[in-house]
């Protein structure tokens, strides 16, 4: 997915670019904190992340914005298409600031937290 977004002109820092073994042993709160400390906007395929206190805490503390895909079963190309289709809405949500979590749905982005 990262390469597909890069091909669309996105700047992407994947977990595998930063952590060994594609971040398999890295807790969510660690990679989220790592990215937020660098002013990166976290993107997850797991919407449950917004309901777990430990994982969402870095977003809350830094008043940041997190996005997640509402369907983990999408193929990578479909994920890229969905994100790129909502690029402007994503940029507007980031500009509004947080703390906030947004689901990236087929037809829109939707604020789902807090």
Architecture blueprint of SSEs:
Layout: H1 2-7, H2 15-18, H3 28-36, E1 43-44, H4 53-61, E2 65-69, H5 76-85, H6 87-96, E3 100-104, E4 109-113
Parallel strand pairs: 1-2, 2-3
Antiparallel strand pairs: 3-4
Helix pairs in contact: 3-4
Task: Explain this structure.
The chain has 114 residues and is α/β, with parallel strands linked by helices. The protein has 6 helices and 4 strands. Helices cover 42% and strands 15% of the residues. Strands 1-2-3-4 form a 4-stranded mixed beta sheet. Strand 1, helix 4 (53-61) and strand 2 form a beta-alpha-beta unit. It is globular and about 30 Å long. The mean pLDDT is 94.
Which strand-content bin applies to the residues? Answer: 5-15%
| Poorly predicted residue ranges | none
Largest β-sheet summary: 4 strands, mixed
Strands in their spatial order, largest beta sheet: 1-2-3-4
Mean pLDDT: 94
Specify the number of helices.
Answer: 6
What's the helical proportion of residues?
40-55%
Summed up, what is this model?
The chain has 6 helices and 4 strands, in the order H-H-H-E-H-E-H-H-E-E. Strand 3 (100-104) and strand 4 (109-113) form a beta hairpin. It is of the alpha/beta class and 114 residues long.
Task: Describe this protein with a few key phrases.
alpha/beta, 6 helices, 4 strands, 42% helix, 15% strand
């Amino acid at each position: 997915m990262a390469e597909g977004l890069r091909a669309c002109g996105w700047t992407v820092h994947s977990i595998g670019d930063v952590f060994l073994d594609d971040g398999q042993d890295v807790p969510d709160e660690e990679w989220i904190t790592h990215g937020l400390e660098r002013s990166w906007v976290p993107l997850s395929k797991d919407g449950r992340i917004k309901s777990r206190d430990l994982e969402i805490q870095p977003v809350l503390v830094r008043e940041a914005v997190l996005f997640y895909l509402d369907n983990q079963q999408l193929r990578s190309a479909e994920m890229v298409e969905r994100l790129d289709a909502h690029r402007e809405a994503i940029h507007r949500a980031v500009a509004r600031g947080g703390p906030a979590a947004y689901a990236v749905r087929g037809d829109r982005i939707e604020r789902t937290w807090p």
